[in-house]
């Protein structure tokens, strides 16, 4: 145990093994929904849902364990939301590309991803982002996941007249979210250790007692076979032979790159890992998620990336790689206890996401709001992420405007050359998404 404590620097990080395990479990509970959402989304593209379920669990587990052991960060990975929808609805259904070819596109994007990680291009880009924008990224992700929680819990819903509006208070599950939010808020204010996890547990119990959450039909089930999707992407790489399909590959690459970069920076800010505007061991963190993305594409799932729900584990005290390793082990167990995961509904995780949003929004105080050349791009990132429903889109808005405002303030020489390069990359990125 002493060697584990030393390797993961538990004493230096002022944490304990018990707290790290709790944090890992909290992160898993917060993102366990992907085990069911990803098969549903990719299933719409004609992929076998059972195989995708197993591929999702294994790819997530691998990414988490690598992140924990190699990079020693409490950051979990899994197939990213948003890019899986692009895979299914835009590429396969919209462009009528066979899912086998689309999966081959993910394999190619993963290989490119791995190469630019090995040559430290991703690391250079992350280090080049100014500290104010990094704080904006953290706060923006906080607003984004809080918005997710409010929507998942039924408190904020779509409204044709006002775009969004308050949800119906006559729906029982909405009150389940309200209960969880109040209980979790009280626990957090009272500084009760594990308050977010306790809040989710009590909300689940209330849901089961009131019948708002159905009792699981069984406890254990075997893991579905990977045969329908395993290796399919590799065998169809030769199908990527048109400009249109290379655009698809580029889009997979760009969206995953900037979603993961933005998420890693935001979570590192929340956990206090950033030193002199740099993220220690970022190369190992990027290598971990690149490897998981490649293996996931071979197993049969859409691109893997760092998950904002890791902030839930960080919020309860997770600071070392043990948190991520624990999350990964629970993903493996999740393959065999999938019926039990249905108890953790959107209304159970919604309060946790909202509270974590509050914690991450505290980064706003570090942004230099007195200088408009900094305030404007930072504000666009913070507001852009929840309103575009995309971390990468919000990041794009700020990165495009930043060089412009800095030049206008006659501070263009202070802008890192990579930020100028990203200006053009993001304009192309936005154009590609708009065209597609």
From TrEMBL:
Ranges annotated as spanning the membrane: 21-45, 51-71, 78-95, 101-121, 133-151, 163-189, 196-223, 243-265, 320-341, 348-367, 379-405, 417-433
Any one GO molecular function term: purine nucleobase transmembrane transporter activity
Protein's recorded name: Transport protein
Family the UniProt entry places it in: Belongs to the nucleobase:cation symporter-2 (NCS2) (TC 2.A.40) family. Azg-like subfamily.
Main localization, broad class: membrane
Matching Pfam families: Xan_ur_permease
Alphabetically ordered keywords of this record: Cell membrane, Membrane, Transmembrane, Transmembrane helix, Transport
Upper classification of the organism: Bacteria, Bacillati, Bacillota, Bacilli, Lactobacillales
Gene Ontology cellular-component annotations: plasma membrane
Its membrane topology: Multi-pass membrane protein
Domain of life: Bacteria
InterPro entries: Azg-like, Azg-like_bact_archaea, NCS2
Subcellular location: Cell membrane
């Amino acid at each position: 145990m002493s060697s584990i404590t030393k390797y993961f620097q538990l004493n230096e990080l002022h944490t304990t093994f018990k707290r790290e395990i709790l944090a890992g479990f909290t992160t898993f509970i917060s993102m366990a929904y992907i085990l069911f959402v990803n098969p549903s989304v990719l299933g719409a593209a004609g992929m076998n849902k059972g195989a995708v379920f197993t591929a999702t669990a294994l790819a997530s587990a691998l990414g988490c364990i690598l992140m924990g052991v190699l990079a020693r960060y409490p950051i979990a990975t899994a197939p990213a939301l948003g890019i899986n929808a692009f895979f299914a609805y835009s590429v396969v259904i919209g462009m009528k590309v066979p899912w086998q070819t689309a999966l081959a596109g993910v394999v190619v994007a993963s290989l490119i991803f791995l190469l630019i990680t090995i040559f430290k291009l991703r690391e250079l880009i992350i280090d080049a982002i100014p500290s104010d924008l990094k704080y904006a990224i953290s706060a923006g992700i906080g607003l984004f996941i809080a918005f997710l929680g409010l929507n998942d819990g039924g408190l904020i819903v779509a409204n044709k007249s006002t775009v969004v509006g308050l949800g119906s208070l006559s729906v029982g599950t909405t009150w389940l979210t309200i209960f969880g939010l109040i209980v979790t808020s009280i626990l957090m204010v009272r500084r009760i250790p594990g308050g977010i996890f306790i809040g989710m547990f009590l909300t689940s119990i209330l849901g089961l007692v009131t019948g708002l959450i159905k009792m699981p039909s069984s406890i254990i089930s075997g893991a579905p076979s990977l045969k329908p999707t395993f290796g399919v992407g590799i065998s169809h790489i030769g199908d990527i032979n048109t400009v249109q399909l290379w655009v698809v590959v580029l889009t997979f690459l760009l969206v995953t790159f900037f979603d993961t970069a933005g998420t890693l920076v935001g979570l590192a800010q929340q956990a206090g890992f950033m030193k002199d505007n740099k993220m220690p061991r970022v190369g190992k963190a990027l290598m971990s998620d690149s490897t998981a993305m490649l293996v996931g594409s071979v197993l049969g799932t859409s691109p893997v990336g760092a998950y904002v729900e890791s902030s839930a584990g960080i919020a309860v005290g997770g600071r070392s790689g043990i948190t991520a390793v624990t999350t990964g082990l629970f993903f493996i167990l999740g393959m065999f206890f999938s019926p039990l995961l249905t108890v953790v509904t959107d209304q159970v995780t919604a309060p946790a996401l909202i509270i974590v949003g509050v914690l991450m929004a505290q980064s706003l105080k570090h942004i230099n709001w007195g200088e408009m050349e900094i305030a404007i791009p930072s504000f666009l990132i913070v507001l852009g992420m929840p309103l575009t429903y995309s971390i990468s889109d919000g990041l794009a808005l700020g990165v495009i405007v930043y060089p412009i405002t800095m030049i206008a303030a006659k501070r263009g020489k202070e802008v890192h050359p990579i930020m100028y390069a990203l200006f053009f990359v993001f304009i192309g990125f936005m154009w590609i998404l708009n065209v597609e």
